[in-house]
Amino acid sequence: MLSSFHTKNVVEAGCDEAGRGCLAGPVYAAAVIFAPDYTNERLNDSKTMTDAQRKLLRPIIERDALAWAVGVVDNNEIDIINILQASFLAMHRALEQLSPSPQHIVVDGNRFKPYKTIPHDCIVKGDGKFLSIAAASILAKTYRDDYMDEIHAEFQHYDWHKNKGYPTLAHRKAILEHGQTPYHRKTFNSSIQLELF
Predict the structure, then answer these.
(1) Pairwise CA distance, residues 11 & 24, whole Å
(2) 112 in a domain, yes or no?
(3) Is residue 68 a part of any domain in this protein?
(4) Residue 171: which domain range?
(5) If DSSP codes are grouped into helix, strand and coil, which group holds residue 107?
(6) pLDDT of 20-45, one tens digit each?
(7) CA triple 162-45-29, angle to 5 deg
(8) How far apart are CA 119 and CA 84, in angstroms?
(9) Closest C-alpha to 92, from 74, 117, 115, 60
(10) Which residues in the chain come in under a pLDDT of 50?
(11) What residue spans of the chain are helical by DSSP H?
C-alpha cells in the first residue's frame, strides 16, 4: 500500500508527467488531491501497469479525488522552452486548475520549478511511494495515450497507437523515410539519425 500523504495536516497535491522522452506529441501532466485518509490498494506507478489496468483506474481516481486536473504543453511550446521547462509548465497548468488549491505539492522525480509560493518536495520514484503521485501518473499517461491514438489516424506511418511517440526503431525509421509531421518536436531532430545508426 502506498502512503496516503507526505506532509500531515495540509491539502497536498501529487504531480507527475508523461511523454517527456518522446519525439512527437505533447507532454502531459496531472495533479491529484486525495483526502488524507484515502486508501486504494490497486494504485501504483503507471509504468508497472497494463493499459487495461490504467484505464480501469482512471475513472476511480477521478471519482475519489477531492480534486484532479490535467495540464498539456504541445510540441511547438516544447521546442521554444525545452522539454524540462515544458514538463514543469504542464504541471503548473494542472495545479492551476485545482480547487481547492493545494497547500503542499509532492512531485515525482528530482527537479521541479516552484509553483507560486506553495512548498514542494521532489520524490524520486514517488509514483511508487505516494497515492496522489501514482494517481497523477495514471491520469497523465492515459490522457496522453488517448491523444496519441487520435493523431495516429492522421499519420499512420509512425505507429503512434503503439509507441505513443517514443523513439522506437520503427518510429525513427518512419521519420527518416517520411519526414516529420506537425506533431514532431523539432528540437529532437539532430538525435534521430545518430540513434538509428
Answers:
(1) 35
(2) yes
(3) yes
(4) 12-196
(5) strand
(6) 999 999 999 999 999 999 999 999 88
(7) 70
(8) 20
(9) 115
(10) 190-197
(11) 51-64, 75-81, 83-96, 131-152, 160-163, 169-178, 189-196
